[in-house]
Write a structure and sequence with these properties.
There is one protein chain. The chain is α/β, with parallel strands linked by helices and 295 residues long. The chain folds into 2 domains: 178 residues, Rossmann fold (3-Layer(aba) Sandwich); 101 residues, DNA polymerase, domain 1, CATH 1.10.150. The chain is built from 15 helices and 7 strands. A 7-stranded mixed β-sheet has the order 3-2-1-4-5-7-6, with helices on both faces.
């Protein structure tokens, strides 16, 4: 497995909003461990970091990244939608803070064989947990034209969704679409050239569908009131409007959470220039309020 190490997005802002005293913290999407390392460097020796990821390869990278903090790190292969189950398995009743860094990591994109990138040749996989579930290939070849169009429009907000779906169905009647670059080339014939690559939203929609990302996020957010200590915090980094709207609505409607970011916090221009992945990042944070205040 090739390893890529990238600067974590908005690390100073994440630490400022998340860290609120020593205790147990959860990095629910630990990836390569960049944010987790920043947390552990700033927290006291009695603090513990629980790292969760659906991607076993990510956990291998995180284990190496965080090796110097080994006694204070607990890594778990699992879904953040099962936060309560994960913490129960570790004997942890409540935590001080939880961090979600949504979407796909830079090093996953750079591993062509994972199938996330339209610019790197690879199989149409896109599973964050490569050991289970349907692949992007499965969806592309089993869904009807109408179902594909709805998927591209709902998850990718792609205005040419129906045109792309029609082209894919016509093409697959002749031969299967097997690689990322083959799909990207096909989509580029249909969608006019624009600032972003024509296949960007199609790949985003497929990835969200393959990994059930919005359902996972909604379930994970619903776990927060039960697993956070009073005064504990949650920080979410999202990278597209569907995620951000879901987080915003949950923070507004959950009776025991108080948003501490009235508007999403954006990366500085300096960071965007230095770290292009930060360009679309949006940070929202909330704090669990005391029960007396709620009542």
């Amino acid at each position: 497995m090739t390893q890529f190490f990238h600067e974590p997005v908005m690390v100073e802002e994440v630490c400022r909003f998340l860290l609120c005293g020593d205790g147990v913290y959860v990095d629910a999407t630990i990836g390569g461990g960049g944010h987790a390392r920043a947390f552990l460097e700033r927290l006291g020796q009695n603090s513990v970091l629980v790292g969760i990821d659906r991607d076993r390869e990510a956990l291998e990278v995180a284990q190496k990244t965080l090796s110097s903090f080994a006694p204070r790190v607990l890594l778990v292969h699992g879904r953040f939608s099962e936060l309560r189950k994960v913490l129960d398995s570790l004997g942890i009743p409540k935590v001080r803070g939880i961090f979600f860094d949504l979407g796909v990591s830079s090093w996953q994109l750079e591993e062509g064989r994972r199938g996330f990138s339209f610019s790197k040749e690879g199989p149409l996989d896109m599973r964050m947990d490569a050991s289970s579930g349907k692949t992007a290939y499965d969806l592309l070849h089993s869904l009807s034209e109408e179902e594909l169009a709805d998927l591209f429009f709902r998850f990718g907000e792609e205005r040419y969704a129906r045109h792309v779906a029609r082209t894919i169905v016509a093409y697959r009647r002749k031969k299967p679409i097997t690689t990322t670059t083959e799909l990207a080339s096909l989509v580029s014939r249909v969608i006019p050239r624009r600032r972003m690559h024509p296949a960007t939203r199609i790949f985003l929609a497929l990835r969200i569908a393959v990994n059930e990302e919005l359902d996972e996020l909604e379930k994970g957010l619903r776990e927060l009131p039960d697993v956070l200590e009073e005064g504990g915090r949650v920080v979410v980094l999202s990278y597209h409007s569907l995620e951000d709207r879901l987080v915003k609505r949950f923070f507004r409607e959950c009776p025991v959470l108080r948003s501490i970011t009235k508007k999403p916090v954006l990366p500085s221009q300096e960071e965007v220039c230095r770290n292009p992945r930060a360009r679309s990042a949006r940070l929202r944070a909330a704090e669990k309020v005391c029960l007396e205040v709620v009542s």
